Amino acid sequence: MCDALTPKPWRKIIHIDMDAFYASVEQRDNPQYRGKPLVVGGSPSQRGVVAAASYEARKFGIHSAMPSVTAIAKCPELIFVRPRFDVYREVSTQIHEIFRRYTDFVEGVALDEAYLDVTENKQNIPYAYTIARYIRAEIFKETNLTATAGVSINKFLAKMASGQNKPNGLTVILPEDAIAFVEGLAIEKFHGIGEVTAAKMHSLGIHNGADLKGRSLSELTQHFGKVGHHYYKIARAEDDRIVEPNRVRKSVGAETSFAVNLSDRAVLLHELEQIAQIVQQRLEQNSTRGRTLTLKIKFSDYQQITRSKTLPNYTRELDTIITTATELFEAVEKENRSIRLLGIALSNLENAKQTPIIQLPLFEYVVNEL
């Protein structure tokens, strides 16, 4: 047990992120796609959305959640492939079996991403770096796919580490380097800080981790609300969130913050349709359906409202999601205000008891090496 004079114990956290997972599976299984710009998602004729993009496509500025019509404009020779979530789930299961050779503390963020707490591990390997290297090698040997890993003392730092050397890389942020790493990190690179929040931070003179660290807790909460507490901690390389194996997923959703506040009804309904497609994809990849749809709206004055409707049957049908979200949107009294954020979530899930999300245990023993 640690007392007030004992240094805070370090955890050993690995973040594994499969490289362009859906697209890489398609290129693995279809040799004619290899080396070519490819996206998984609906085609432009279907007003689809990109679910994943190969690295060849990313060179053209194509990314997930982008409307397919925008993607094809950036790369006319782009290949569109319909998602095969049953295949992706099978491969994800293979990968999670590899994780559990080393630890049962696994947080599955998505089919292609997970956190592992290896502070204590099944093979008694002293270094998390070694475990990450073994895992990446086993994933490639057994699935012919590459993964990038980040290793550090908490979830935030491990996530940031895995973003430093993609694809097929491995990065370690040691305890003694953590604060300097965060201070030098551009604010746009912080996990959880999107384009709109980054722009607001720039307007406040916050451009990197050092600038963020220089702001008081009261100032950050004044400008960013409750999430200001989180920003205050990660600016100091602190993250107490724990890995929670088998935590039940309660909802599946997506939201978009707009760089410019929107007021045009047609534009907003189009954005709502794009969000609905992302939600439908996520429901499908999680093999679940929901009965309660919740619409989230944040206005330009930062007032946030939600409206919900419980459907007679479980669904993940795109038309049903769009129709219900649109009905809720049209019923909202907007008072001529513009909108800065829209979101859709499905809850009351059909198989909630069987839908685990796997998340960061805080141990009380001291481990100083990674």
Automatic annotation (TrEMBL):
Mg(2+) binds at residues 17, 112. The record marks 22 as: Substrate discrimination. GO terms for molecular function: damaged DNA binding; DNA-directed DNA polymerase activity; magnesium ion binding. Residues 13-194 form the UmuC domain. Keywords: Cytoplasm, DNA damage, DNA repair, DNA replication, DNA-binding, DNA-directed DNA polymerase, Magnesium, Metal-binding, Mutator protein, Nucleotidyltransferase, Plasmid, Transferase. Its cofactor is Mg(2+). The keyword Transferase applies. GO terms for biological process: DNA repair; DNA-templated DNA replication; error-prone translesion synthesis; SOS response. It is found in: Cytoplasm. The active site is at 113. NCBIfam families: PRK02406.1. Belongs to the DNA polymerase type-Y family. Poorly processive, error-prone DNA polymerase involved in untargeted mutagenesis. Copies undamaged DNA at stalled replication forks, which arise in vivo from mismatched or misaligned primer ends. These misaligned primers can be extended by PolIV. Exhibits no 3'-5' exonuclease (proofreading) activity. May be involved in translesional synthesis, in conjunction with the beta clamp from PolIII. This is DNA polymerase IV. It comes from Anabaenopsis circularis NIES-21. The lineage of its organism: Bacteria, Bacillati, Cyanobacteriota, Cyanophyceae, Nostocales.
